[in-house]
Each structure stands twice: as structure tokens, then as C-alpha cells.
Amino acid sequence: MNKSVSPFLREFIGLGLLGLFFYLFLFVDFQEISLSIPSELLTVNTMFLSILLEAIPFIILGVFVSALIQTFVSEDFIKRTLPKNAIVAILPAALLGALFPICECAIVPIVRRLMKKGMPLHLGVVFLVGAPILNPVVFASTYYAFGSQHYMAYSRMGLAFILSIVIGFIIYLIFRKQQDQLKWTKEDLVSTTIDDGKEKVGKIKSTIFHASDEFFEMGKFLIIGAFIASLFQTFLDRTLLTEIGSNDFLSPAVMMAFGYILSLCSEADAFVAASFGSSFTTGSLLAFLVYGPMLDLKNTIMLFAFFKARFVVIFMVVVTIVVYGSIVVFQQFLL
């Protein structure tokens, strides 16, 4: 009895909190009570809502794509489609990312679902780091954000494509004998045995059920990540950043940290990067544009929730070293 009541209570409380959030957002005038609230907390509230509202549409897109994969894509199809050679398969995995206009917070559920369907770990990583950048929407936003500096858009795409392949290859070398790095819940294990029964429900209803479950599972980690990011955005002293913006070695690291903390969606981060153009080097702006979509606060929390901690830590270290090293080389020889 308790086992059947507990999930119902969790769903009821979750829906209640979600309803309260939308009620406060739509019907409560915070300006009337702002006199008694410190301005910093109001800024946190504004930043939190902006990050959340910016990310939710892409999370919805991501969970629906994930649900479609769960319902319509079989393990046999993935095994037949991917090249047998693990190294050769990295290139089509990088090209596949260019087909999906998905930001870094929406890509986590998709990669997780593909890996549950049998995609190798290193190919999932290629898709994870490449897809948020290598798509037409991000290219267009970067192209227009930098005005006459069109080389920024091409540099971003080219660098992201090469680095996604390099990162995937490194992950393959590290984890080629430990492919299963997902956290499997009891529900996941049970669902793999009852999916055939869900065919009777209908593929459309099954897709909706999977999408709703995935949304509420991902949503709580998105909210936590958005809140932490809003705290950093509010209380971080940005004047410290501009003081070292002209240093070829320090400025890329600073902008990578800035991209990690801000947790902007990749479709919009180019306009923020362009605003730093007068204070930071071109290489550091590229570091911001490449590193942020690959790794930020929002998707870090999601990664720790759904992948084993050792893999997430190694993944973060690999991405950080590869991006920073490539930017330093890029600045020395290509700029």
C-alpha cells in the first residue's frame, strides 16, 4: 500500500509546486512587495526565471526526441546503422549532431536514451559535445551576433567539430573496456522488459508517457542548475574578468569558467560573447562559445544524476583540457 501511495504523493507534490510556480509568475505582482526584498534577491529571481524559461522549450524538445527514440528506434536499428569499427564510427556521430537543433540541456536525455538503446559510450559523448554547437540555429545566431566578423561563426563550427572527434576518441581510449557508465534505476530495468506490453497502448500514447516522465525527471535538475547559475550571475564580480581579458593564457580560462557559470543556451550565447569583444581576445571568446555548450552548470547536474560519478569527472577534465589546449594553439598559430 505504501509503495503505491508514495509515487502518487511525489507526483502530487511535484505538480502542486509546478502549479504554484506558474501562478506566482503569471498573477503575482512582485513590484508591490519589492520594497521589502533586497535587490540582490530580486536579481537572482530575474536571472533564475530567464534561464529557466530559456531552457524549458529545449528541454521539452529534447524529452520528446528521447521519447520518440524510445518508442520507434530499436536496438537492432542502432547496431545496423553504426559502423562496426569503433574509431570509424566517430566521424558519422559528429556529423549526426549537425542535424539536430538542440541545446546542451536538451541533449542529455537524448544521449542517455541512445546509450540505453545500445549506442557506445564514446559515440554518445561525441553527440553530447558536438550537437549543441554543430547545428544551423547556432551557426546563424553566431553569424549575426558578430556582424562583420563572420570568421567567428566558421571558427566556432570547425573547432567544435574537430574537438568533438578528439574528445570522443579520448573517452574511447579510457572507457573502451567499461562501456556501461549509465546509472540504471529499478524503473529503467523494469521498463526494458515491459516495453512490448506498451505497444498495446499505442505508439503515440507511449511516446507521450515517456516524454512526460522524462520531463519531470530532468526538470528538477534543470531547476537546481538554473538556481545555482543565477546565484553566480548575480554575485560574481565581473570587473575582475575584464582586468585579465587581454592575457592570451588567462583570458581563455576565465571565459571558459564564465561560460560554465552562466549556463546560457547555445542558441543565445553568441550575443553575450559579442558583448565582451572589446575586452577579451578572439581566442577567449571562442573558448566561451565552444566550452559553454559542451559543459555548464545545468548539464553537469544532469550528468551526475544519470551517469556514474567517475565518468562525469573524467569527462569534465577531458573536455576542459582539450578545449583550453586547442584554444591556446589556435591563438598562437591561427590568429
From TrEMBL:
Key words of the record: Cell membrane, Membrane, Transmembrane, Transmembrane helix
Gene Ontology CC annotations of this record: plasma membrane
Residues annotated as transmembrane: 12-28, 48-73, 85-111, 123-146, 158-175, 218-236, 270-291, 311-334
Superkingdom of origin: Bacteria
Chain segments annotated as coiled-coil in the UniProt record: none
Membrane-protein topology: Multi-pass membrane protein
Localization per record: Cell membrane
Pfam families named among the record's database cross-references: ArsP_1 (PF03773)
UniProt key word Transmembrane helix: yes
Main location: membrane
Family indicated by similarity: Belongs to the UPF0718 family.
Protein name: Permease
Organism: Metabacillus litoralis
